Amino acid sequence: MISKEEVEKIAKLARLELTDIETEKMQKDLSAILDYFDLLKKAPLRQGSAGHAPKVRDGSLRKDDVLPRDSSVVERIITGAPDKKDGYIKVKTIL
Asked: CB under 8 Å to 94, separation ≥6 — which residues?
């Protein structure tokens, strides 16, 4: 089981203030999570699976083609927008 000191150190790094009851609960929860990872480490891999993405052969990826668009649909969408500029829909800045 993960120690109380380790939980307190993790809580401090995460800038959390835990009560004694919360610390005990986190000890149990974190220990269960770590036990589950140990279980996953012991699980057998399927044959041919090494945990990596498959190698891509030349020409096996889909070509990036620009699809034709119906300009009337685009115009109707832009026309229906409440705020627009230079053929684009204006939206509020979020960042």
From this structure: none
State the helix-helix crossing angle for 20-42 and 4-13, rounded to 10 degrees: 100
Q: How many domains does the chain have?
A: 1
Q: What is the pLDDT of residues 19-46, one digit of tens each?
A: 999 999 999 999 999 999 999 888 887 7
Q: What angle do CA 32, 49, 56 make, to 5 degrees?
A: 130
Q: What is the CATH number of the domain that holds 24?
A: 1.10.20
Which residues span the domain enclosing 37?
4-42
Residues 1, 24: Cα–Cα separation, whole Å = 11
Tokens of 85: 């500029």
Q: What is the pTM of this model?
A: 0.47
